[in-house]
Design brief:
The chain contains eight helices and 15 strands. It has about 290 residues and is α+β, with helices and mostly antiparallel strands. Strand 1 and strand 2 form a beta hairpin. It starts with a strand and ends in a 13-residue tail after the last strand.
Length: about 290
């Protein structure tokens, strides 16, 4: 097989063929996929019947796996998957859908908001890799927005205004926007806000991106209402249909995306039925802003 990447959305989403990612990769394959990520930001793989161990092994080709602690309200004794795997399904340990009022389900509804994975961490994530083990019976598409193209479409005055801005990100902000506000002291400590630059530059391509997320709760130095109105306007611009690709999941799809250059969200689905989605995350290597007292 010869690895190939074809456009699904020109310059944004590529479909990969000619590779079996359940098996160990050679250096040339890894380099080709890294180059594909630098060019596209989202890569789609079909028919990859991964085990959790194989998914983690594939992920490690691109860096260390991020520690998932501090990113959810699931207690250790409630974990369904092994360490290194992020459970973004609607399932409990019995592999049945969570109850409608289950706290874990309500927290995970935040995934329906536009966000960048782990922007709530001082060192935010590089790549995310999401494997579809069982798709939703209806709904459940994942949408991706190209933050590079959104930045390019801004006028010069707005680019100049946002260049120096620093935002505070926290799960407290994104979940609070949905009314999920009852957090323990330990959760509030784990979710304490971090600072991120509003504009990022890709280290390889040199392309500039907006760095937006529902986790944003203010802009440093701005009155909060003014900050949130401005962020809302930027997010509305960045998620216009011309910047968005919607992925309709098939069983055994894997989608890999660059959190530094994209936002994404899952669309509503019938979660009375099982939807088994398993994510691994490649840790980032540096903060985007100095972490002062937030």
């Amino acid at each position: 097989m010869t690895l190939a990447i074809r456009d699904l959305t020109p310059g944004f989403v590529g479909e990969v063929s000619g590779i079996d990612i359940t098996a160990p990769l050679d250096p040339g394959q890894v380099a080709a996929l890294e180059a594909g990520m630098d060019r596209y930001a989202v890569l789609v793989f079909h028919d990859q019947r991964l085990t959790d161990e194989q998914q983690m092994a594939f992920t490690r080709n691109f860096g260390a796996i991020e520690d998932a602690r501090g990113g959810n309200v699931t207690r250790p004794e409630e974990q369904r998957l092994a360490k290194g795997m992020n459970d973004v399904s609607n399932l409990g340990q019995d592999n049945r859908p969570l109850a409608r009022d289950d706290r874990r389900r309500l927290f995970n509804l935040g995934n329906q908001l536009w966000h960048s994975d782990s922007s709530f961490r001082a060192i935010p994530a590089k790549y995310s890799l999401l494997s579809c083990r069982l798709p939703a019976t209806s709904g459940g598409n994942t949408e991706f927005a190209d933050m590079r193209a959104a930045y390019d479409a801004l006028d010069e005055a707005t680019r100049a205004e946002i260049a120096p801005l620093i935002c505070e990100h926290s799960l407290i902000y994104s979940r609070g926007s949905l009314g999920f506000t009852e957090l323990s002291e330990a959760e509030r400590a784990a979710f304490r806000p971090v600072r991120q630059s509003l504009v990022r530059t890709h280290p390889v391509s040199g392309r500039t991106s907006l760095y937006l997320s529902s986790h944003i709760g203010t802009i440093v130095g701005w009155p909060r209402p003014e900050a949130m109105a401005f962020i809302r306007d930027l997010a509305e611009h960045a998620t216009e249909p011309r910047f968005v690709y919607a992925h309709r999941w098939r069983q055994w799809d894997l989608v890999m995306w660059d959190n530094r250059q994209t936002m994404h969200r899952v669309r509503r689905f019938d979660d009375r039925q099982p939807r088994d989605m398993r994510r691994t995350t490649v840790a980032g290597d540096a903060p985007t802003a100095e972490q002062l007292a937030a």
